[in-house]
Amino acid sequence: MKWAVPLFLVSLASATVYFQEEFDTNWESRWVNSNWKTDGSQAKFRRSAGDWYVDAEKDQGLQTTEDYRFYGISSKFPGFSNQGKPLVVQFTVKMERNVDCGGGYIKILPDGFDQSTFGGDTPYLIMFGPDICGSEKKTHLIVAYKGKNYLNTKRFRCEIDSFTHQYTAIFHPDNTYEFLIDDQEVSKGKLEEHWDILPKKEIKDPSAKKPEDWVDEPTLPDPEDKKPEGWDDIPELISDPSASKPEDWEDKDGEWKAPMIPNPDYKGEWRPKMIPNPGYKGPWTAPLIPNPDYVEEPNLHAFGTYGGVGIELWQVTSGMIFDNIIITDSVEEAKAFSEKNFAYRKAGEPDAKKVYDDAEEAKRPKPAEPEEHDFEGREDL
């Protein structure tokens, strides 16, 4: 059963669900299409479960409708900060068609944003989800800090098949994060190590100089290796022994000489063999020192005051379905939401897709069978 309204600021034990959306029949009362494109290049969403599904009603989500179009839609919720608390952002996206270029991400927006003009230039606090364009296939996990957007320094994969996939980003108050696809960990670590938000804690000492006696050549010529006798007597080119003077050659043409060809015995310039350098110390690098520009940020996990969620995209191939968005401070709440709304899809969609594909195949006209002829007794053959 779908929720009648999204849950705002619902406290369950110590958990708070700031936003929850399953796109019931009243979804349009909570979402606003923007007017950021006025040239006819922007299309609208519709509520749909797609061409195939596990549950015709429960699988209804927000679907893009037209190819080669921009999209912009958003929903607001009461502003909040996750300072000192976890923040979990989770949603599902289904790419029924073979996507050659299109975004499948959502944006978490700052409190007070303008829904009517929400578009590509609207500032956001988090941009999260898959993006595909040709051979470029990745999952964005971009965060904002002091008005500047920062891409994660690691490259995250995205799922490119036609099934529903769930994307989960978790930001912890100890300034670490986790990223999951379909409840499976893809990456985790420290925010300041996986985003270049803060200056590095340590830098190379700019005053350090490589010692004059530093040996950074891993090999050296073998001093005991000697050039073989006669090495330099072998010419690089020789006269072609198979060549002969043309019969029409005349003395007035000058003295005939056979053309020169590479000498198969020529070995090139002699060089002594290389041996390991006993004094090798490895590549020299300046020692690290504390960065005077580094200042610890205890609230790096809190990107601002969140006030809405938006879907702003360009799609060459339409048909993506967004669903089951939840923003909460509880990992357990997000897991429970996943068990309710995603687990059955993950289990049932392969079979549902096969049923659909088999039905589509049955609709296709079958090639005509060749006619049978009885040639027995015909004298003209």
From TrEMBL:
Q: Which cysteines are joined by disulfide bonds?
A: C101-C133
Q: Where is the composition biased (Basic and acidic residues)?
A: 202-213
Looking up InterPro entries in the UniProt record yields: Calret/calnex, Calret/calnex_CS, Calreticulin, Calreticulin/calnexin_P_dom_sf, ConA-like_dom_sf
Compartment list? Endoplasmic reticulum lumen
Q: Which UniProt keywords apply?
A: Calcium, Chaperone, Disulfide bond, Endoplasmic reticulum, Lectin, Metal-binding, Repeat, Signal, Zinc
**Principal place where this protein is found?**
endoplasmic reticulum
> Which residue ranges are recorded for the region named Disordered?
202-271, 349-381
Gene3D superfamilies for this protein: 2.60.120.200, Calreticulin/calnexin, P domain
Which GO CC annotations does the UniProt entry carry? endoplasmic reticulum lumen; endoplasmic reticulum membrane
Q: Name any Gene Ontology BP term.
A: ERAD pathway
A Pfam family of the record is Calreticulin
Q: Which PANTHER family match?
A: CALRETICULIN, CALRETICULIN AND CALNEXIN
What family does the Swiss-Prot or TrEMBL record give for this protein? Answer: Belongs to the calreticulin family.
Can you say what this protein is called?
Answer: Calreticulin
Gene source species: Blepharisma stoltei
At the highest ranks, the source species' classification is: Eukaryota, Sar, Alveolata, Ciliophora, Postciliodesmatophora
